[in-house]
Amino acid sequence: MPGGAGVRRPDHQTTTRPPVAEGGPEDGPPSAGGGPPEAEPGSPQPGSPQPGPRGATPPRPADGVTADAVLAPYLQGQAGDFLRSLRLHREHSAPSDANGQGAEAAARALRRSARRISGSLHTFRTVLDPVWADHLRTELAWLSGTLAREHAYAGRLTRLLEALHQLSGAAVPAARGTKPAATKSAGAGASSGAAGPAPDAQGRAALGVGAARAGALLERQLTLARTRAHSAALQALGSSRFHAVADAVALLASEVPLAPGTTGRGAEALLEPAERAEQRLIGAVAALPPDASAEPYNEAQDAPWHQTRLLLRLHRYAHEVVLGAADPVLTGAGHALDLHRDAAEAAAAAAAAARTPRIAPATAYALGVLHADQRHEVEAARAVFRETWPYAAAMTAP
Length: 398
Known about the structure:
Distance between the termini: 22 Å
Low-confidence stretches: 1-61, 170-199
Number of strands: 0
Mean pLDDT: 78
Strand content: under 5%
Shape: globular
């Protein structure tokens, strides 16, 4: 294992280190995908860089501390948070809570705990009963993903309507008009509404005509999707599958099933899987497409960035388990990846709306410009990630 031995070498530097005084990051916007990846991501290729912060001292477990004494309280604490959030969600879901804000906050807290339990079961599977861990992780990923969709659709609609409002009152940047893919990628209707680069005045006029209709179309489509997601969430929370998950989490709050032979093992047993999670993240960052080969309107290039975001989340949770707090050095990078995900999904929603049959050319044009705007937001988020990623050597690996 490339990570385990490295933690114990005094000369090896890793990102798994004691938190600094500034404190750890908060969770970003919830992912529409919910929990961590269902299948364990691949390890980095041999020879992947293993950079770390200058002057960092690798942490060592305190003498006499065991793995179960570290992992069990963390999982039990998250299970307790899950159960409290579930109780609050039931209380605020009553008809007397007209605005629904309490239920929404409780659902976010419920997803937060579910993600942390699921991510920890994924990373520290070798320390836990593997059959139990795999089953509960899968069920929590299902629950988190189901509950996240309603919030994701609402956030996407807000983002797109705000972008439309800003774009309709300003000139269309030339950079967006010079790439045919900016309109073609948003669908055939969009390309018919914008045959080529338009002068600023002409572009503003065309965008002003179509922006209101484009906003209304997006609102109809995403509100319908949100309503369906809300119904699916309510159905899930009332299902026997969910009650089985809640029962399993309630048992976890009192007892953590460990792998045979884990009880009494030193806490260093947790450092090896935590460092593997770290090395998978570093390998994924090193494998990201370089800026020189990036194609702004090639959505296929989004996948490795989304995977990096999931791996960063797993690393953050592993850091919380081992050291009690998330790594604050990666706060900015994690936020940039959240923005990347949001912009990519918003661009996809604009493109899907532009493929609606029989929409007016002005509406298609506005959706094409909106799609291009969100793809440029994707590019901007990638640039911010590269600026805030603290281990620059990993970004320049071949």
